[in-house]
Amino acid sequence: MKLHVDPQAVEEAAKLLYIRALKVLPDDIKQGFTRLDAGEGDATAKTILATMIENIAVAERTDNLLCQDTGIPIYNVMVGRDVEVDGAALKQAIRRGVERATREHPLRSSIVHPITRKNDQTSTGRLVPVINIDFDDTPATLQLEMIPKGSGSENGSFLKMLIPADGLDGIKRFVIDCVMQAGGKVCPPTIVGVGVGGTSDLCMHLAKVAATRALGSTSADPEGEKLEKMLASAVNSLGIGPQGLGGDSTAFAVHVETAATHITMNPVAVNIQCHSARRATATFTPKGVEVGF
Amino acid sequence: MTHHDFYMPVSEAQVRALRVGDTVTLYRTLFGIRDATQIHMFDRGRKTRFDMQGHAVIHTAPNVKQVPKSNEYPAGYASICVGTTTSARMERFSRPLMEQYGVRLIIGKGGLGKDSAKAFADLGGAYLAIIGGTAALETTWITAIEDVDLEDLNPECLWRFGIKGFGPLLVAMDSHGGSSYDRVMKTAEERKAAALAAIGVKA
């Protein structure tokens, strides 16, 4: 069976996903809060977690945004087999969806030109929304994932071109240093995304993929998975806590993504996701469009 | 650990009475301010017509909707979602806000640095931590957008909000050199070597 994707349906989905992502947190993140709250020993930290949990309920009850930051809109498109889609039209449709969500809801446009700082009030600009397109072998399926990446945690982004002599110890030390430097500025509890290997740009991209992965998922690379567990316990032993005000709940998790790299290189990147770990997904199949996380 | 109800504006003595760990709830008036607002005010020579003497500012840029002016919407804006942004980017504006405009309280998330701490001590100010990412809740504490200045900077205008029971907020930096953030980072520094050793990293 073939899937034909209509750009108009993509535009509608792109608009709906942006608004939905800003209002409803995925279940895995809600469960992450419950887990952190159960293990938290600091009284202030427990109060802060309780307020965050209350906010999730208030946002749903009042049909409001979880956080004022509408973020940088990112769309990850995964195209399966036997999918017929006009790629250029798809990209235009996503952009129109973002513009319509901003105008029709309305949402704060958080996007400015990087040099003039001019805000067109559309949440779009040069190369924004960010659109990543990839392919997999799922039959007759196109998946559209929307991530409104908040700036407080996006400013907690770091890259270091370590050398082979720095070894795995250098990678671990760098991650801990980044988490300490980020402190409360990145709105902990966070998901710490770590990219290891690749080129500089791929390494940074992997860190973003890791930071925006669902809680409970693990690195596809068994070596990455080992590192995830180790780093999570180290990060949470520092006592930074929710909002950087102290406690055990500094990170929900550390996620690691890896890529092969060059014999002379040992790159490591960190990208942090704040506790408002928002995402929404639309899955297009011949049966129709299904919206989820 | 004392709770304070502040009917804005407040005096220097009221702010100097605050200690790290105390909580504060604000009433009546709150000003919203952001990166671009302060870049224009302090780097580009623009002035605001607002009197912020003894007042509190919050690091924010809200989601708003333009509506016809009315008693309910005196500035022609409905507040959709008002939250808080990371304060650290605005560190260098704390002192001029206090010196030139008489601001007493800064509300934000993530904390401010040494220059702000010194300004709080010299001039009588404090930093109140709000919980970042809880904007849906904060929005319920706002009664109206009463006025707006530097409107061309939207959403980074200077906003004047009417508020009811805005808080409780945590005093995280006071005028006596106290800072929750310094205390937490000191702990983290002390624990760092053990954290690394536990995952096999040699000192």
What can you tell me about this protein's structure?
The complex is a heterodimer of chains A (293) and B (203). Chain A has 293 residues and is α/β, with parallel strands linked by helices. Chain A has 2 domains: 3-22 and 66-149 and 278-292; 151-273, no CATH class. Chain A is built from 8 helices and 11 strands. Chain A has helices at 7-23, 27-39, 43-61, 87-104, 151-154, 167-182, 200-211, 222-236; strands at 3-4, 72-81, 83-84, 130-139, 142-149, 157-162, 190-197, 251-259, 266-273, 280-285, 288-292. In chain A, the strands form 3 sheets. In chain A, strands 4-2-5-10-11 form a 5-stranded mixed beta sheet. In chain A, helix 1 crosses helix 4 and helix 6 crosses helix 8 (222-236). The longest helix of chain A has 19 residues, at 43-61. The model of chain A has no long low-confidence stretch (mean pLDDT 98). Chain B has 203 residues and is an alpha/beta fold. Chain B has a single domain (3-178), classed as fumarase (Alpha-Beta Barrel), CATH 3.20.130. In chain B, 27% of the residues lie in helices and 30% in strands. Chain B has 6 helices and 9 strands. In chain B, strands 2-3-6-7-9 form a 5-stranded mixed beta barrel. Chain B has a two-stranded antiparallel sheet with strand order 4-5. In chain B, helix 1 links the parallel strand 1 and strand 2 (23-33). In chain B, helix 3 packs parallel to helix 4. Chain B starts with a strand and ends in a 5-residue tail after the last helix. At the A-B interface, helix 3, helix 6 and helix 8 of A face strand 4, helix 5 and helix 6 of B.
